[in-house]
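Sample entry (651 residues):
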Amino acid sequence: MITRKSIDEVMLATRIEEVVGDFVALKRRGSNMIGLCPFHNEKTPSFNVSPAKGIFKCFGCGQAGDSLKFVMELEKLSYPEAIRYLARKYSVNLEETEQNIEQKQEQMDRDSMHLVNEWATEFFQKQMRETEEGRTIALSYFHERGFKDEIIELFALGYHPPQAGIFYSSAVKAGYNPEFLVKTGLVIENEGQFYDRFKARVMFPIRSVSGKVIGFGGRILDKDKKTAKYLNSPESEIYHKSSVLYGLFEARKAISKEDCAILVEGYTDVISLHQSGIENVVASSGTSLTNDQIKLIRRYTNNITMIYDGDAAGMKATFRGLDMLLEQGMNVKIVTLPEGEDPDSFAKRNTSAFLKSFLNEQAADFIKYKTSVLSAEAAGDPLKTAGMIKEVVQSVSLIPDLVLRSVYIKETASRLDTDEQTLISEMNRVIRERMQRLPERPLQPEEVAAPEPSAERPEKAKLIENGAYAQEADLVRILVLYGNEPVAFKEQDENGNPEEHVYRVGDIIVHELIADELLPEADFNRQIFNAFALLPEDAEAFPDEQFFLHHSNRELAEYVIHLTSSPYELSKNWLDKHQIFVSTELHTTRKMVMSSLYSYKLRRVKKLLDQMNSKLEGDLSDDELFSALEQIKGLQAAKIEIARQLSYVIV
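Predicted structure, serialized as tokens:
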């Protein structure tokens, strides 16, 4: 059995467009990619790939899924075989073992650690917001740094008081096991005594890509030089700092939209830039850039802009990460800030418009950046110049794309006034030496027999298209895509005065269906609805699209792909170039929700009416007949009112 950890590593490394691109010629169309479907014959492309979501969907035959599903269907592989296929493609070493009681316990422990971290985040926020000390020390500190309340809330910043044991005693009192307080690193145990790790620090929760709090960073507020300025959670079963990018959860949508990630060093760099409107920004959180962090970015974009301090240390940090990015096929640009500035201070000194303009104008490709920095160091010294040329060629040699590599060699030759053929020879020598150092990896082909994929449209797609369930499927689709979106309603208070109330889309739909006892009938629709309806009262947000797309129930995840995928995408040129504004669902949320809700109710009421009218044809007693007629009368009235409301919403 392949371990869960190995499967997660494979999925982390996998990029849907690369997996599909091995079999299908894909072309970029907006944020998605299209091509001819490999599962059925077609002349016009209807096969869509979404790199941001990690899914594919054919609007011709209905096939849909993630990288694993694609490989399983196309290569006729079982689930474990598909995992091994992707592991070989991305050079991931698999661990295979039988799951035992200990492994099950490990999973339970990880879940407990997540719960502890979520509670700790709320504790730190309350300490900052609801205590005099927190407001005076921590909240004032953040305000002095220029952070607005909205950004403090978005990144869930908080405060750990200096009193010894305050966090530990509060957590134990709240019912949390000391074992998990220690495992998460929030508490240190020494000879039976427990000590708070982060006392007297402002707190920066570190989230996973899915939004779970997996660790913390704490900054000291006094100027004690003997104490580390920043302190991070130690490595744990749920927190591996080399595989985490601070701010990615908040930045992932902007990265996909901009098709570019901006990389900085620290927490406050991310927060300041985000507040200034540069939302596609992440940080390596005080660690040197790692391959796992690069793989995280590559799930959303191939383009990265590095912003480091303008001093010598910042330049060296840039060089360290540059070669790793190039080796993984990233398109790299670098922005150098003025001497003495860092992204945090620079964002505070300048307007949002200036920042965006500065980043666009100052972003230099890596050749321009590296040659300019090294040329300044060489200062005309022949030996240093030769070393500089070799270092630049070394970086170019790492680029996997042959055409791009050739372009950069020409660029280097032009910038350094060097013979192009000499650079090519040097580059080939570097590549040969690198290949000789690589260990041999013998191929182990596997022959696997599997049934042919069905030519019929998947049942999940048929369910959505089925008229009997079309309205409830649309309602569930809205829940998944817009459940957390706010909707404003104008109502009247007890005195008849107008007032506005704001509700979440999920709250509206759940309340209406439960109140009218019109719960979804189809199995998958009911499962999704229950994920919203049965959410704990203290939960801050409903499940989002990513939650369902990566659901452990793979059939449910595939169903959600069918629900939420659309063959159409608005061109940016409509607004940017032609100044044509197109109203989307998100712009008309209230109308969309109420229209779908009333359409669903109308169909269900009509269905109940048909059932009651059929019942009248049976042999009924007088009491039964009277009861049936009363119900039909009520349903008829409900039908008329719903139709009236539906007409009002549409008009």
